[in-house]
Every structure is written in structure tokens, then in C-alpha cells.
């Protein structure tokens, strides 16, 4: 990596689950580098959803390195997720035709509910499946499968955790870490947002800022996808030894179902 920029640059890991991100410093300059980032990053940059992409270079071994401006800023606090700017940026993402076209060119296909449910049933181990609330959840998902269809598929982030929202010192808001991007019902992101961060009494107002009317069908779709995401989280937490978080997931299932 050093020979790409020169020996004067100090390059250190920048964290993240993939281990492909680096911070590069030289004098007063600082860059965010990523190895083998998706071509999707370029469109995200043009749309103003992630910090500006400066250059892309291919190494002799075939790896592609991207460099973005390193912005001074901070992640959003959970309480800030109700801000109208969050709703407007998510609406911009979900309505972006360039983002959708690029993911389609990269071979992504819409994630339909029946495909998602089949994947869930395959991924859950028998111990998880035998839990009472998991069985109730799977029955609900199967029972509502014919009701949650939605004709509009958009680009969804898939992990709108507050840690992935970056507010720069110039007061610019970005949504980063797009490795899990998918084409799906916008309720995938909306459900996670509302159930995790917004009081139910404010859902209608938040959705109005996003540009949607809160309807019974939207409520059903959000509940369906949040239950799916909670099941996946329970399985992942078990596999990674996060037993406290796994137990919290079971509690969340019971709460959402009720």
C-alpha cells in the first residue's frame, strides 16, 4: 500500500469488520483508503451520500484501491436519528435511480419476501428454531407472506445503525459502510430505523418528513422485516458468542410480536 502513495505516507488500519480500510497521513493531508471497494462507491460519492471519492487505482495483483477525503466529524447519537435530515437523506437514497441502476449492473436482484424467508429458515440452527418466540415469529412470517408484497424495490443500506451516520464538522450528513447494500422493499431500512430509534408516537411524523403516509400495509411490512432482521441477529450473536445480545434478541421478538 505504501508504494501506491510514497514512503512519506503513514498508513494504518482504520478499523471495520472487513479489515480492508486504512487511514493515510502525510503532512496536513489525510485520506481514507479502502481495498476492493465496490464500484458502487463512485455513484454514492456522486450522489453526495458518502464523502467525496478522490481517485481509484488498480494494483498489479488486481486489487483496487479507492481514496476518499478524510472528514473530521462524528457519528450520530441515537437520539439524533429522529432528525429530519436523516429522514430526507434516507428518502434520497431510496428514490435514487443511479444507485439502483448501478446495483443492477453489479448483478444484484430484488430480495423478495419468499426468498428472504427461505434463507432465514436455512440459516437458523435447530436450537434457535426450537425457541418458543422464534417458532411464533416464523409462523407470523409465513402467515403474512402473501400480504407483505410490495411492487417498488429500491436500494437499501441494510444496516442503518447510528454508527454508520457521519456528521462532518461542516455539518454535512453522510451514510457510510455500504458493503451490505441490497435491492429490496424500503421497509427493510424504515422498519429498522423506526423500531430502533423513533418512539412509536412519532412514526407518522418521521415518515411524513421522509415523504410517506403511515398506512397499515407499511406498518405490516416494517414489522415483517424487523422480525427477519432480529432473527438473523440472534443467530449471528450466538455464533459469535454474544450471548447477552442473543437473549436481548429473544426479548425483542416477544415485544415486536405483541
Share of helical residues = 40-55%
Question: What is the typical, i.e. mean, pLDDT?
Answer: 89
Q: Residue ranges: pLDDT <50 for 5 or more in a row?
A: none
Taking strands numbered 1, 2, ... along the chain, how are they ordered across the largest sheet? 1-2-3-5-4
The coarse overall form would be globular
CATH superfamily of the largest domain: Aminoglycoside phosphotransferase (APH), C-terminal lobe
CATH fold description of the largest domain = Aminoglycoside 3'-phosphotransferase, Chain: A, domain 2
> Which CATH architecture of the largest domain would you pick?
Alpha-Beta Complex
Structural class of the secondary elements?
alpha+beta
Number of domains: 2
* Rg, nearest Å: 20 Å
CATH class group of the largest domain? Alpha Beta
Oligomeric organization of the protein chains = single chain
* Secondary-structure element order, N to C: HEEEHEEEHHHHHEEEEHHHH
* Tally of separate helices: 11
Query: N- to C-terminal separation?
Result: 52 Å
Q: Largest sheet at a glance?
A: 5 strands, antiparallel
Annotation, overall tally of beta strands: 10
- Residue share in β-strands: 15-25%
Task: Give a description of the structure.
With 258 residues, the protein is of the alpha+beta class. The protein folds into 2 domains: 2-70, Phosphorylase Kinase, domain 1 (2-Layer Sandwich), CATH 3.30.200.20; 84-257, Alpha-Beta Complex (Aminoglycoside 3'-phosphotransferase, Chain: A, domain 2), CATH 3.90.1200.10. It is built from 11 helices and 10 strands. It has helices at residues 2-5, 40-46, 84-94, 97-105, 113-123, 126-129, 132-143, 187-197, 203-210, 216-239, 243-257, and strands spanning 10-13, 21-26, 29-35, 53-58, 64-69, 73-75, 154-156, 165-168, 173-175, 182-184. The strands form 3 sheets. Strands 1-2-3-5-4 form a 5-stranded antiparallel β-sheet, with helices on one face. A 3-stranded antiparallel β-sheet has the order 6-8-9, covered by helices on one side. The chain has a two-stranded antiparallel ribbon with strand order 7-10. Helix 3 (84-94) packs across helix 9 (203-210), helix 7 runs antiparallel to helix 10 (216-239) and helix 10 (216-239) runs antiparallel to helix 11 (243-257). The longest helix has 24 residues, at 216-239. The chain is globular and about 60 Å long. The model has no long low-confidence stretch (mean pLDDT 89).
